[in-house]
Creatininase
Amino acid sequence: MKKVKLAEMDWVSYHDRVKDGRCKIVMPVGAIEQHGPHMSLNPDVLIPEHIACRVAERSKNMLVAPPIAYGYKSQVKSGGGNFFPGTTCVSGRSLEEYVYDVILAFLEHGNREFLIINGHFENSMFLVEAADRAVKYARLSGIELKVVLLSYWDFISEATVKKVFPDGFSGWAVEHGGVLETSIMLRIHPDLVDMSKVVDVPPAEFPPYDVFPPDPTWVPSSGTLSSPSQATSEKGEWILAECIEKIAETFS
Amino acid sequence: MKKVKLAEMDWVSYHDRVKDGRCKIVMPVGAIEQHGPHMSLNPDVLIPEHIACRVAERSKNMLVAPPIAYGYKSQVKSGGGNFFPGTTCVSGRSLEEYVYDVILAFLEHGNREFLIINGHFENSMFLVEAADRAVKYARLSGIELKVVLLSYWDFISEATVKKVFPDGFSGWAVEHGGVLETSIMLRIHPDLVDMSKVVDVPPAEFPPYDVFPPDPTWVPSSGTLSSPSQATSEKGEWILAECIEKIAETFS
Amino acid sequence: MKKVKLAEMDWVSYHDRVKDGRCKIVMPVGAIEQHGPHMSLNPDVLIPEHIACRVAERSKNMLVAPPIAYGYKSQVKSGGGNFFPGTTCVSGRSLEEYVYDVILAFLEHGNREFLIINGHFENSMFLVEAADRAVKYARLSGIELKVVLLSYWDFISEATVKKVFPDGFSGWAVEHGGVLETSIMLRIHPDLVDMSKVVDVPPAEFPPYDVFPPDPTWVPSSGTLSSPSQATSEKGEWILAECIEKIAETFS
Amino acid sequence: MKKVKLAEMDWVSYHDRVKDGRCKIVMPVGAIEQHGPHMSLNPDVLIPEHIACRVAERSKNMLVAPPIAYGYKSQVKSGGGNFFPGTTCVSGRSLEEYVYDVILAFLEHGNREFLIINGHFENSMFLVEAADRAVKYARLSGIELKVVLLSYWDFISEATVKKVFPDGFSGWAVEHGGVLETSIMLRIHPDLVDMSKVVDVPPAEFPPYDVFPPDPTWVPSSGTLSSPSQATSEKGEWILAECIEKIAETFS
Amino acid sequence: MKKVKLAEMDWVSYHDRVKDGRCKIVMPVGAIEQHGPHMSLNPDVLIPEHIACRVAERSKNMLVAPPIAYGYKSQVKSGGGNFFPGTTCVSGRSLEEYVYDVILAFLEHGNREFLIINGHFENSMFLVEAADRAVKYARLSGIELKVVLLSYWDFISEATVKKVFPDGFSGWAVEHGGVLETSIMLRIHPDLVDMSKVVDVPPAEFPPYDVFPPDPTWVPSSGTLSSPSQATSEKGEWILAECIEKIAETFS
Amino acid sequence: MKKVKLAEMDWVSYHDRVKDGRCKIVMPVGAIEQHGPHMSLNPDVLIPEHIACRVAERSKNMLVAPPIAYGYKSQVKSGGGNFFPGTTCVSGRSLEEYVYDVILAFLEHGNREFLIINGHFENSMFLVEAADRAVKYARLSGIELKVVLLSYWDFISEATVKKVFPDGFSGWAVEHGGVLETSIMLRIHPDLVDMSKVVDVPPAEFPPYDVFPPDPTWVPSSGTLSSPSQATSEKGEWILAECIEKIAETFS
């Protein structure tokens, strides 16, 4: 298997790969966030990193950067909320600045294309800002930079959703710690999932607004927004296969 | 009709209304953004301000703050993109800081509850950050602050959607400058809409990722993401009535 | 009457007006600040916006941007102080960043000339910084930007002052909520002035320094720094006519 | 003569002076800015530092902090403009942050009262912001801080102005590098003034607005905004004596 | 072996470990930086993470946080310089803010003690600032926080140095990519070292100052500041054993 | 003796010296920090300023900028710690921004080379960041800037150390307020040293880590980290002579 993690390369080999400016740097960005009592705190990091590596393995000109582990503050309706023990998040501007700086650092090596694979919904707009600012800064130096930003779940087709949720899909909004993420983790890191601890909850229902400080009673006390009890490694592979296939196809 | 815009009150009258700490400050936040050749640049400001005022009129203890007009950068898949002439947006942190400061300023007058009515999708996460930080800062001074954050369209029911789109709804994602916003504007500011200039476009279709710098060819050249040709003032009233009713009910 | 508010134009019409780079964008910047028990909180916004519009109407190539409503913290000796209920101000850097971003956003549409009309004394230095930084940033991209910054009262002649204050002028420093602003508001927004609530105070006198936290006993409890009792709509028109005439002449 | 410069004390002696929290820290803040071909670049630093020391010598409980030498950007109408060689200025936020941090550092030693003596007009609003923020930050820790902010020239009486300008005063606005500052420098640092190099210019006249980038043709090429030719050391002493006397009286 | 990586725990188990406030959070902070043609880019991340885990395994109350991978800009005299391909560093304030936010996030879970294990010399002062600010912020909320900051190499004794460098030690300053780091990596990640690519260089010598932009000719073209040719896994174990032993003893 | 302090020059003379872009601006940066009961708070400012002036006197093309007096927070193991009364320090980013702005301001006058002489260990990394950012910003404008950064003590040879410490040198780390700094101050500012107040302490010993908040019991209560009792003016001259000679030779 090809070495795709750039941090595991020596600088000379890395330089050989990137110096013509055609290499794409794949940057996984995630979060440390509770995902229920049955799963570790890091699916939002491990899943995009896994996808990044498998995509890069299929490509001739992609390298995977070390993932950025701490993401933007978990929100009640998408991640349970920032008050859960274990959920360990940074401010929007810290994330933005950190990602912005990392992009510009890779730019110095001659890289001109980036593929940010996001694993945590709440990161999105701060990644948008980081990417937009990096592009504009590069332009001041006469450099044209291209940053693609994606959240892996946006590549899952309706067909796959139907296959994964034969009894009906309760919607993306409540997939936090549910069948989708749990299945993927069962596939790629079964040691970090303990299905015996799964708490079976009906899909969370939320009012059409947010409130600050958040109200913990809005969220199931387990922290998952829907039940992961139907998760299986096989479903995880269906999802991953599709995401990896499509992402690889689109960007390689 | 009651005076609900606080900026139109003298300070003594305002003080009388807020000094017991029970008044809710309603803050409309929008954007200056192209909405097609048939409509002005300010629906994202005028609509939340209108809703805010009509909600406040039904309440005993709400006042509407001056709207914040310039919002976060328009994104291709939700607002056409930040490259359109007329789209005039600020950075995430400018918006965040400005809103944060305004909340803290109202706090000084004794206010403890805020209702932010957002009219521009892209603002959301920066408003989240502003609200979250304001709550935490207030807490350092021993003050419990409550900020509700809503985007008005989240209060529109499926029933109304069906009524407004009898031929099928192409989804929230492409409602930028489409039937929904145009209908509301026809209802509240008909002078700012010119239906003769409507460009009839099929609903925009986008790939499942974003790219920076944005690619203008992704967007219909008119700037609208779906056709507003079926917009009517009557539909606007249906939508508004529902939003106002529900928001008023929930928060008054 | 010509349409001069750019936010009320559709983007295509706006683009037609600005694409040759000769249009001047007029930006009113104000504050939400108490102006005595007889007047609304928004004269510092409404007056510069009114002047901006009337100036733009006389010009072939001016458009008025949505006003920036929240300004820098009111100071005791110029605005009564930041502790008055209703006075709702932002920090210096928030104002600076917000204005800076707005200028740069208009720059993207091809605009190269800006006319900032300030309505709130305390804003001045932060507007200076925003303008200076915008000019320097634009230069990095090879763009020459020009920003004119004015406070409308600087265009009032001694002759007009004598006419408006036949019994003697107590000086610009104490004109907060006094004859000048009240007269203009009587002229342009009589509904936002209630002369029956005027509190007659002698011109405020201050020591030659400032103190933080401010001492509320320095300020008349009404919040006005001189008496507005001699204000009339006619005086308002004299002042406006002169300001508008001169500004239009100088910059059209 | 008493030692009043705190930086020249050892820490134990300093501690003895400040530990009861009654000492006032006097902070001179200036600028490095051209003052014409006849004078050094540092009058805005040396004058407030001199006044600070002479005021502190008369007091039982004042110590003078090291002056902050680099101030906010020189403006055309008050300091000739930021484009003059030798004028070496920082951004508003750098000045604000630096002063804010210094105040908070002195706070840690037990100090609760500050007297900022400003020698450069353009600094004022950024010092206001630094002082305001420091007071608020201290309050979060339960500490009541008091910061007085003054510009020394505001203590000069009309009587002294008449004596210094027997042929008529052309106004504070154009006193940059003129009789006032030159006279004071002749009195306290005659080695830094060379009257043979004085350029005799009529008082500068400016339009009622500012422009960015600044237009160098607005300013006399010498950099002074009025003629310093009538400056004398004796006049400098009149001015200083009054400022020092009044400041000492008011704050000791 | 005990689970010590907190990101691999589910939130309930994590909560059980930290809720009494006695757990110490160990935070490895490193850098992505060239370490010669014979070694990967990530020793500064992997080494402190390894030490953190082995220390935590010996303790009853320590958990290891996900490492922060991107550190402050490599300097010529300590890391070869920021211009090497592969060296991928962030600005001081990005690092500071990111670490600061992460500390405060862990604080919310009840944690009160932190042990930052630094693996990259250049990070030090920015970690100092992050720790100092976090302590002060926590204090505003009435929380006493304790942050220990160490660089692992400071725990290596002179005796070990003598053993590792039997022919004489050329000093810590040039140990970048040399015997020390290479030996440790041979011990913990032999797959990331290729001794056949070692470039034998004499210890780098530098002038007693730094220059910006850096001068690449100061640095051996291999990027190592001394020769790693004498590195062995055994030496790596000696060093690690000592560091781990001492750190565990001091802080457990 | 030549005039080397640029703040003491008039702008025309200054301009004549710098306009060809070959002048080097020497910037002393220090700190206000306790140095024991026998010495003033400003050695870290006065020593680099003195060296700067004597170096500039020997050069044809150097001018000395006003020193930056307030530096980064004193650390326990290098400066006694930030909790000592009299130690008056700013945050890292304030120092960084202030220095960055000053460099860029001198750049505007045509200067292209800077020599920062640091007198306070803790400043180093923040000066690195200021210099690095200034170089990069200048490059955006097409300007090549060169900044040399040095701490004067790095120019002291082993031979001089032996001569100054005939009984053995306890190391640079504990030289705070010890023989080295005291000797230099005795030579250049004997009025700011009182040898009768010297407290004789053994060299401080510290654990191989730092802790926040700092533990005052780690530091001798006098604040010096080693005994200054053997300091003499003659030793000061030896040290200065060497530093000045070498710095002048290297950079003139």
Observations:
- Chain A has one domain: 6-251.
- The helical segments of chain A are 11-18, 43-58, 76-79, 92-108, 124-140, 158-164, 179-188, 233-251.
- Chain A has a mean pLDDT of 97.
